[in-house]
Design brief:
Helix content of chain B: 25-40%
Number of helices of chain B: 9
Largest sheet of chain A: 2 strands, antiparallel
Strand order of the largest sheet of chain A: 1-4
Largest interface: A-B, 34 and 36 residues
CATH architecture of chain B: 3-Layer(aba) Sandwich
CATH superfamily of chain B: Thiamin diphosphate (ThDP)-binding fold, Pyr/PP domains
CATH architecture of chain A: 2-Layer Sandwich
Order of helices and strands of chain A: EHEEHE
Distance between the termini of chain A: 10 Å
Number of strands of chain A: 4
CATH class of chain B: Alpha Beta
Shape of chain A: elongated
Low-confidence stretches of chain B: none
Number of helices of chain A: 2
Largest sheet of chain B: 8 strands, mixed
Oligomer: heterodimer
CATH class of chain A: Alpha Beta
CATH topology of chain A: Alpha-Beta Plaits
Structural class of chain B: alpha/beta
Number of strands of chain B: 9
Strand content of chain A: 25-35%
Number of domains of chain A: 1
């Protein structure tokens, strides 16, 4: 399919679970976990990792800067 | 290819700026302040001016901005950030000085300092975060609050004039939303005046480009204030979740505060 494949890593302890990354992901990759972190927030995670294209939209809108984006060319 | 194969340092395309400290932001989940801090840090990093940048933080939610940036910072008295920035810039003309203020600081208690700094045409960068409410003190009405918007001090919605039949017809009550950005764009002392937002990736990129231009103008010694207003959210005091607050911002804040450049290189942009 796409020429790129991506992945994100979320700093789960700093994530506040606002969900802004979830709605701004063009490929609907991200979701909020059922588990909570140390502060009681449902942190963001890759619900469907296969769909990620590494566009970094999630990282750009993240208010807390907890998302790092990685991308490889296939 | 598994996720573990992709997450390697050589494949990194985006991460938090190194100019932000490791301290977690104290802002509410989804608050625009965090995004704006991030893009300012990215701009300072890209321009390579971290050694000579001095920021001035306000009183308000962003009062502890100095904790998050790895650049020199001063915390000014309430509303006086631009007056502080003026002093710093005049003593050290070769430093890059920016003030970071919210609407309660810049447009309410600091209106005098804001107007006069812009009128003097100081060569500084001003970042103005407008969320239409006093965030830190618990959601009271700000000058920028929209008409009809419910706040702690206007529980029936902000009314510009008292309702008919109250015996005071036509007498101003809460006043009109203050468009301070349009106001200062009329002053000859301002060089670059723009209004941006940070609710989605496209607008974050545009806001970052605007902030970068505001810093570049200052470095290039173009005399005059570079003013960037950013329409932001306050989901806690708007009583919404972060995603709904961003939708509400698009539907209600943006018609009142339209985005785009208002003044470029000292000339008003024709609309």
């Amino acid at each position: 399919m796409a020429g790129f494949k991506g992945a994100v890593s979320v700093d789960t302890e700093r994530c506040k679970g606002c969900g802004v990354c979830v709605v701004n992901c063009p490929m609907q990759v991200l979701g909020l976990a059922k588990e909570v972190n140390g502060k009681g927030y449902n942190y963001a995670y890759m619900a469907e990792p296969d769909k990620c294209i590494g566009c970094a939209s999630c990282g750009i809108v993240c208010p807390d800067g907890v998302i790092s984006v990685y991308k490889v060319k296939l | 290819m598994t996720v573990e194969d992709i997450i390697k340092p050589e494949n990194l395309v985006y991460e938090k700026s190194k100019l932000l400290t490791s301290k977690p932001f104290h802002y509410c989940p989804g608050c625009g302040h965090g995004t704006i801090h991030r893009i300012i840090a990215e701009v300072i990093e890209e321009l390579g001016i971290d050694e000579k940048t001095i920021g001035v933080s306000p009183v308000g939610c962003s009062v502890m901005a100095y904790d998050y940036f790895d650049v020199d910072f001063i915390e000014a008295a309430h509303g006086r950030a631009t007056a502080c920035a003026t002093g710093i810039k005049r003593v050290w003309p070769d430093k890059v000085v920016f003030s970071y203020q919210g609407d309660g600081d810049l447009a309410a208690i600091g209106t005098c300092e804001t107007i006069h700094t812009c009128n003097r045409g100081e060569n500084i960068t001003m970042i103005f975060v407008n969320n239409g409410i006093y965030g830190m003190t618990g959601g009271q009405m700000a000058p920028t609050t929209l008409e009809g918007m419910k706040t702690a001090t206007t529980p029936y919605g902000r009314k510009a004039t008292l309702p008919a039949g109250a015996g005071f017809d036509g007498i101003p009550n809460n006043g009109y939303p203050l468009h301070i950005t349009e106001l200062i764009a009329r002053l000859p002392g301002t060089k670059y005046v723009t209004r941006q937002a940070v609710y989605d990736p496209a607008h974050v990129r545009k806001a970052k480009a605007a902030i970068k231009k505001a810093f570049e103008n200052q470095i290039n010694g173009k005399s005059g204030v570079n003013f960037v207003e950013i329409v932001s959210n306050c989901n806690s005091n708007w009583k919404m979740d972060p995603v709904k607050a961003n939708q509400w911002l698009v539907e209600n804040m943006l018609p009142e505060y339209p985005l785009g450049d208002i003044k470029v290189d000292g000339k008003l942009v024709e609309k």
